[in-house]
Amino acid sequence: MATVLIAGAGPTGLLLACELRTAGIEVVLVDRQERRSGESRAGGLHPRTLEVLDQRGLLDRFLAAGQIRQIGHFSGLALDFAELPTRYPYSLVLLQHRVERLLEERAAELGTRVRWSTEVTGIEQHPGDVTVTLRGPDGIHSRTVDHIVGCDGGRSAVRKLAGIGFPGTDATLTCILGDVELACPPAESLFQERREHGNFSVIGFEPGWYRLITTEYDRPMDRDAPVGVEDLRRAMIRIAGTDFGLHRPRWVSRFGDAARQADRYRAGRVLLAGDAAHIHFPAGGQGLNLGAQDAVNLGWKLAAVATGRAPEALLDTYHDERHPVAARVLHNTRAQSALGRPDTHTDALRETLTDLLTLTDVNARLAGMIAALDIRYDLGDTHPLLGRRVPDLDLSTAAGATRLFTLLHSARPLLLDLGHPADLTAAARGWHDRVDIVSARYDGDRPTLPGTGPIDLPPAILVRPDGHVAWADTTDLTAALTTWFGPADPQAPSAPANAPMQLSRN
Q: Based on the domain organization, do 151 and 31 belong to the same domain?
């Protein structure tokens, strides 16, 4: 069985482990921490990540644990998610440690558990595998695997050992974050209140405790310097004039707006995902979501290559597709950082942008970007769907009513026949071992794509396991199947040219 080692058991590493296990890959999941920290960290999931979880049949457990809220924003300026063309036009407030718990439970269900207190200290690549040196509770030992993926954060040991560059810009500000109790809390949550010396937030996440965040510009500080509750108290008093009686801190941390991105996401059999591949100011709450979507893009590709069904070159498409997405996030978070400056010129700029956000198209453009629903991988322009995430259509099949996302639960490619005149079952016979073929009817309205509007559906769609459209009845189906899912099975029986259309789920 093919084996992949994942370094880092945060949301990205856990979701990648789930994707690989679903595809039948053995996963070794290690983390240098002694145990799950319980730190709250990131605060929510955006619409596209909710869709990704729905595509795997996992969303219900996340919805049950979180709170649905309309909290989209761009540098503190409210965005309306309500009109986004998705079943989930909102954010789900769910702290990172709870996200991790749910994903770790799913990984365990699939047969993978985290090996704590284990760090990667060496990587040696060979033509057919890679030897990883690990230091853990039982000492130092080596493990030979097919690939290693660094999901081990902004200071990634895997990235450094692989010699992958991490260029970018240094911090220009300092934020202090604390999860605390308040003796005198404000009457309602305060979000990015801008004052003369910076800005601050007071956000109530759960009954009895609050998240305080302070931002001070032109005061970059050493990330390695210790930070505690008294630092947070002094920053609150400098900016807000009060600390609201903060006490009993659960977690205090410091961060800045440094923005860096790996210059390549793949170096042979070493790959990067999540914060190991990109760091940025956490404006708009995009970080956890960006990493989760990295994992889903990479998982099926790595599984196909590790099992020998697809050539190594398929892994290059991971960098080609995800690097521009993260570059855009770095760009927009730099813009959001600049928009938070406490000065008169920035006040004027924010007032102008606030006015522009009353225009439907402007709100839709920024909301689609923050929600990550507008992503289109460059797979050609022969149909508006090509390269985009597929809409979750309500379908009628021979097996009954279903949703398109339900058909993706197995994390297999989907060839959806919506009334194609040709026999797609026969045309794709050589891929029946790895592609699900479903004949269905769609009777709904024309689906809407963010930034494009309503579109006409093609009579057939080839959907990748990550939910993006690889073919839309505009090019050679055989070429698309071969490009994404490897060559046809030469042992597959041929079919007569006039073979009837039928429902096939293999």
A: yes
